[in-house]
Amino acid sequence: MRQLMPKDVRIGFACQRSNLSFLGILCLAGLLLGLLPGRAEAQTCNNAFIGNIFNGAMAISTTSMAFGTYSPASAAPTQGNEVITAYCFGGLLGATLPPFTIAMSAGGGSFTQRLMASGTVTLRYQIYTSAALSTVWGDGTGSTSTVSAGNDGMTSETITAYGVIPARQFPTPGSFTDAITVTVTY
After folding, report:
1. Which residues pair with 95 in a beta bridge?
2. Which of 67, 84, 99, 172 is the most buried (most CB within 10 A)?
3. What is the C-alpha to C-alpha distance for residues 164 and 173, in angstroms, rounded to an integer?
4. Cα 36 from Cα 53, distance rounded (Å)
């Protein structure tokens, strides 16, 4: 079992020229360097071409969940989305994502009730696995669930997290934040 954190820095190569120029030779050399045995730990994407020697590495990127302006007087909850993208890079000839699971930490609160803070003032919110807003996205303990993806022949996959701030909370005005750790296990 391996875990990939969202802040891991990966270096990829972008080769766009089709003729065999000096730039093309450098890009080819850079791609072939990724096949050296010292990088075996990062070779996680699947590729059945020639005995799996052209596997790539898996990485993720996330966006911030932005709720916009919260109005305490509104009877409706405020909603926001976060996008998590898992992708393969550095592989040749169609490396695909392995099966993986995405878990989220509780942040500044608990899985029962996550909390954003502005100084000492808090605002309740929650993150769900689907737009139905019925299953809390967590680490799989208690009543939370993780999200599984990958192994469907894709080189990248986008997963959406759905956030909700319940209505009728009356905090003092401020900029509220929380830090959630997204963990990918493959």
Report:
1. none
2. 84
3. 18
4. 10
Residue found under tokens 């305490």: 72
Q: Where are the beta strands (DSSP E) in the chain?
A: 3-4, 57-62, 78-89, 100-104, 114-118, 121-128, 147-149, 156-165, 182-185
Interval 45-94: pLDDT, tens: 776 555 555 667 888 999 999 899 999 999 999 999 999 999 887 766 66
Cα(10)–Cα(59) distance, integer angstroms:
7
| Enclosing H/E stretch for 80 | strand 78-89
Query: How far is Cα 146 from Cα 142, in angstroms, rounded to an integer?
Result: 11
pLDDT digits (tens, 9 = 90+) for 100-110: 999 999 999 99
Q: Given the structure tokens 């096949």, which residue do they identify?
A: 35
CATH number of 86's domain: 2.60.40.1090
Give me the domain span that covers residue 170. Answer: 3-185
The confidence score (pLDDT) of residue 14 equals 32
For 4-56, the pLDDT digits (tens) are: 433 332 323 232 323 333 333 333 333 333 333 333 334 467 765 555 556 67
> How many structural domains are present in the chain?
1
